[in-house]
Amino acid sequence: MALYAMTLFLPASDDPVPPSPEAQRANEQSIDDAAGQGVATVSAYELHASTTATGIRGDVVTDGPFIDAKEVIAGFCVIDAPDLDSALAIAKANPIHRYGGGIELRPVRDGFPKLDVV
Predict the structure, then answer these.
(1) How would you classify the pairing of strands 102-107 and 40-46?
(2) 3 state DSSP class of 29
(3) Residues 104, 40: Cα–Cα separation, whole Å
(4) Beta carbons of 44 and 80 less than 8 angstroms apart
(5) Which of 4, 57, 109, 111 has the fewest CB atoms in 10 Å of its CB?
(6) Helix count (H) and strand count (E) of the chain?
(7) Residue 69 lies in a domain
(8) pLDDT in tens, 17-31
(9) What is the pLDDT of residues 26-65, one digit of tens each?
(10) CA neighbor of 107 nearest in space, from 115, 96, 88, 92
């Protein structure tokens, strides 16, 4: 099994719109469908609109996103899949595609150093 990060994008014009109950049910169903295919959802998060972001570049802090873009990050999740083909199948079946969105899929690196919490 390998970890993959799925970054979910939506058109910027849909950014402030919270998901409908139908879209929420579709998201939940996609997690259940993935589990039925042997792919575990390790974590999944939906983000608030990009207009709620705070940008930090060095010592400069600004309200709002860094850049104007055609797409915005709507959320992200980490899945544990047997292989890349399985991860791709889950990404292709994600309901975000029904709403004009897309997904970037990347393997997660192993060996991130453990952080000590003081």
Answers:
(1) unpaired
(2) helix
(3) 18
(4) no
(5) 111
(6) 2, 6
(7) yes
(8) 778 899 889 989 999
(9) 989 999 999 999 999 999 999 998 888 888 889 988 887 6
(10) 88
d(CA 8, CA 23): 14
Say which CATH number the domain at 78 has: 3.30.70.1060
How many domains are there within the chain? 1
Predicted structure pTM score:
0.83
Helix, strand or coil for residue 23?
helix
**Is residue 115 in a domain?**
no
What is the residue type of 11? P
**Considering the domain boundaries, does residue 28 fall inside one?**
yes
80 CB-near residues (< 8 Å, 6+ apart): 1, 2, 3, 4, 39, 40, 42
The H-or-E segment that residue 34 falls in is helix 21-36
Q: Does a structural domain hold residue 72?
A: yes
Q: Which domain holds residue 98?
A: 2-107
